[in-house]
Amino acid sequence: MTTNTVVSVSGLEKTYGKANERQYTALKGLNFTVDSGEFVGIMGASGSGKTTLLNMLSTLDTPTKGDVVVNGHDVTKMRGNQLADFRAQEVGFIFQDFNLLESLTAEENIGLPLALKGTPSKVMDQAIHEVAETLSIADLLQKYPAELSGGQKQRVAAARAIVHHPAILMGDEPTGALDSTSARELLDLLTTINEQQKMSVLLVTHDPFSASFCQRILFIKDGQIGSELRRGDQDRSTFYQGILNELGTFNE
Amino acid sequence: MLGKLALAGIKNRRRDYLVLLAGLTMSAAIFYMFANLATNQAFLKANAAISSANVIFGFGAVLLILITVVYIMYANSFLLSMRQHDYGLFMMLGATRKRVGELVFLETLILGTLATAIGLVLGLLMSKFLVGFLLNMLGLHLSHLTAVYVPAIVATGVLYVGLFILASLFNLIKLTRTTVLKLLHSDELANQPKVKPLRQMVQGVLGIGLLAAGYWALADIKALQLLAIPIGLVTITLGTYLLFRATILMVIRALRHTGWAKKHLNGFLLGQLNFRVHNYTRMLTIVSLLFAMALGAITVGSGYHRQLPMMAEKIGTYTVAVHDKTAREQKLIDQLHIAHQATYTQKRQGKTVYYNASELTATPVELRAHSNSGNMNDQKLYTESLTKFKKSGISDLDFLSLALGKVGAYAPKILTAKQFAKQSGTVVMVTTVRVKNLQQDLPALKKLNKLETARFSQPGTMTVGNYQNYEMMLAFFGGLEFIGYFLGIAFLAMLASCLMFKILSGAPGDQRRYRMLYKVGVRQSLMRHGIAKEIGILFLIPGIMGVIDVLFGLQMFKPLMAAPMSPYLGIGSTFLIFIGLYAIYYLITLALYWRIVLPQAPND
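^ inputs. structure came back:
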């Protein structure tokens, strides 16, 4: 493992069901790495194992076999509080359904990861306002999630995901519940964050448009990595065509 | 077909329905227990020392009905929130509003009737058990008290079924007027209460004013008579509600802007409380009232229980007098914790009882001082010289009673040892015993008194000794003591099911929120602490308010518990036991909540 690798997955397997029951293997020996500062997409049809993979990476689920190393931590060896702390400090999440706490204001939602760390309130305020500027939600901070549109909610969720400068930002279909304008805005923001803050981003999606913002795309099929596509110097719309072509052949 | 679907929906949410049914059943059972006492005129007439007990029960019933109405409203909204998604789905699939309305109506009514029926059976069993247990524990005999009392069964049945019919109608109207879309997306929407400082100030001041008026009404019960109770009930209920409404929200708002709110899950806790404060104020008001009534009733009950022996002890000079004690009686006397014991030889001749002066000098008869202060604690025991005793002490009622028979039937006469030896007559040895603590020796004293009265039947209401004084007082106040304990336990159970309900009905929403926190990386221990704090606050606020209510409300019993009794005497231990029970109840609720709400880590 080189120092600039932020995620390293080797021989990852996940089997559901107990030994004496009917078993289903969702992941069959996955291997890949994500370099620091990279913007990687994971694509695949429904049931291909995308979400299972993300759950392994984010420690919400444990693998049956294999290793997952995130920012130098072997997450398969962690237990209890270590897992919680890992999620709180090393990873930022954006979910399809936002996962904002409706009883807290946008500001309080964003501040949550810092509060968990016990950050002094002045430092916290500063960090919240910085990230709010970046995501242009400074004027929304006092509002409750119910008062925000879907796009605004997802930007607040993104702010919460990066406010504590995690090693990697993981998104699970973050544009899934957004209209096309909001989706494009969010993806542009993720690109900006990735470029300016050198934050690694891992995006799980089945939407080719979202995927076209990535630098590299891994295609998963039946629990294995089927192929890989690099953007290189192509512009986004060319890459988008490339992805569509790949999907066309990949799914056959 | 739709009926089948509805049934399948219920099956899927078995646990929720079980909670709902259990809560309603408990409520009906408790109402029956109360109605059993309140409507039993024969029991009240025979056992309540005061005629106003009847009226107190009347107000108690009104209050309980109000609480029941609110309780059923809660239960109903819980039911509706569980079902509206399903019903929305049925409508989306093409079921007519009329058909769905019928289903809602039937479901509510069936559930309610079932709960009432089970509740009545449970109430009967609980009454039987509790009545037996309490009477046994308190050593009371109350006439006309039965577990099965038909008018109470009718009253409970009519009230509950009536309320459920209303609830069904309400559900019917509500569901048929809401749009399908709203039904489908009925998940909790944030309703953030708006803060209007001036209005809150007014509410707060008004609340405190009403509370003060209520406390004053209870304290001034002598002047206001029975009017004090309805005044107190209305003003304290409203006052508590307004005060909670005004202050809780303000405190939360203020705390939210502090640095404390930005540490760990504190902000989330405040957000949670703020989010639900409107629902909570009503619930907290009811719980604080129930808490106050449960604690107050038990305090009064235990006050009588503890203080009746204390008071009896202060009346006469000896606890029991035994004439020509048998071996069995001696055995019982040996079990007592004796503070003073004397044995005198009597010789009875005609209408005179002769005593030996040398015996009276050796162990002088104890006498009780009379005090004008009205405080029985000032009436100390003393002895006097034989010469003095011949003039004054000899006419002491307790001493006269040693002769047995009607007071004044025998005249005591003291002879010198020589004269006494010559005096002819029936010889009777009388032993007087004064115990250290009447309460402590009650069982042995009871047996001793039984043996003694069996051998020497006493005419009329003549009492000999403090033990008999105690029995007489028990006959007079025992009914109140029993009612106090009984109601206390009933209210405590009601409080328990009320809080439980409210808290559990919030659990599904919390499940989602804690799942989110879990994903974001909140430690399990932090979530546990957060829940413990949140539920702790929900228990603490009504607890504090309830204790304050009781401290003021006990004033009401001052006329009934005159010196040396006092409604405030020794309440510390009662409070401690009660708070202990409340704390145990908190821990149970907390454990339940943890189990429902906390997400399981994959490794566990």
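Strands of chain B lie at 320-323, 338-349, 352-356, 367-368, 381-382, 411-415, 426-435. Chain B has three domains: 1-187, 190-202+227-314+468-604, 320-464.
thumbs up if we can close this ticket
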